[in-house]
Specification:
92 residues, single chain, alpha+beta, 25% helix, elongated, 4-stranded antiparallel sheet
Length: 92
């Protein structure tokens, strides 16, 4: 849990449709691949899995998509699907 906000903290508005960049962990990569494998498990011809596009280890997501995809894993005691520090992209 983080400390309560103070007067010195900077606040900004962030729209969940805006993008963030994260570094997926091995667990995150496996979780991203799992629905693809489940969908095509019974087919003889499977399309190739495409991992999230990464630049220098960072993949970019709309925040609501990231939370929808990995939110069930963001619980105390679970290993994180991505590193705890994220880049927040704010439209200027």
């Amino acid at each position: 849990m983080t400390d309560k906000p103070t007067k010195e903290d900077v606040e900004l508005l962030f729209n969940v449709n805006h993008c963030v960049s994260v570094r997926l962990t091995e667990i995150g990569h496996r979780e991203h691949k799992r629905p693809h494998e489940e969908l095509y498990m019974h087919l003889s011809k499977k399309p190739k899995y495409k991992p999230p596009e990464e630049v220098d280890g960072w993949s970019t997501w709309q925040m609501h998509v990231l939370m929808s995809f990995f939110g069930h894993m963001l619980t105390p005691g679970f290993k994180l699907p991505f590193e705890p520090e994220i880049k927040i992209h704010i439209k200027g």
